[in-house]
Amino acid sequence: IGAGQGGGRLAETFHKFGYRRTCAINTSPQDLNTLDIPHKLCIGKSGAGKNMGIARENYGEAKEDAYDFFLDSIGEKFDKIFICAGAGGGSGAGTVIPIVNTARELQTRYGASTNKVGVILALPKVSEGKKVNANAFHTLRKVFDAVDEGKVSPLILVDNEKMNKMYPNLAVAPFWETANKSIAGLFHLFNMTAGKDSTYSS
User: For the range 189-193, what are the long-range contacts, defined as Cβ-Cβ under 8 Å and sequence gap of 24 or more?
Assistant: First the structure.
């Protein structure tokens, strides 16, 4: 499940790697329109404008629709749900914890092997400004609490400031695409390795 613009882009990247049970949810129809994945749900009219409270409120009003949307997107048989979100924006940061709670409801209802939800959380670059970094700080605290409460595992943090140092000469558009491919590609490699028959331990 991709939440917000950054999370939606990560979900789209997983879809490009062949993960078909992916979807995106956002308060901004413009952000959803640019995603090349089949399952998209808009829970707002003009985005959250970096305001996590607006996104949280919109999700609360659309919670039942979101539940049905997630179920339609991923089906009733699955091992675990992962949520991708950017920690600094409004839509992703504001909905990540509510979506964790909805995903846990789905996992419990449909007998997933665990009740813990995976979260891939992208941290903003320092240059993205005080508001974005303040959002990331508050989001991290809430997600860390969810880890302590046994709701989230694993929590995978993507540090875009470090990514920026790894790929220093890329323009904005190719930077985000490269960063997303790096993360999704590592995850995909792990899944492929662990899923293959081998005479060795993998």
Answer: none
* DSSP assignment of 114-183: -SPEEEEEEEPPGGG-HHHHHHHHHHHHHHHHHHHTTSEEEEEEEEHHHHHHHSTT--HHHHHHHHHHHH
The answer to whether 3 and 95 are in contact (CB under 8 A) is yes
Q: Cα separations (Å) of 169 from 125, 129, 141, 166, 173? A: 15, 20, 32, 9, 12
- As a whole number, mean pLDDT of residues 168-191 equals 89
- The first and second tokens of residue 109, run together, are 């209802």
Tell me what pLDDT residue 172 has: 82
CA 81 – CA 104 distance, rounded (Å):
8
Give the integer Cα–Cα distance in Å for 177 and 109: 35
- Cβ 97 vs Cβ 55: under 8 Å: no
- Return the pLDDT at 202: 57
Predicted structure pTM score? 0.92
Q: Is the pLDDT of residue 33 over 70?
A: yes
Residues 89, 87: Cα–Cα separation, whole Å? 6
pLDDT score, position 138: 97
Task: Output DSSP code: residue 25.
Answer: E
**Tokens, residue 13:** 């990247």
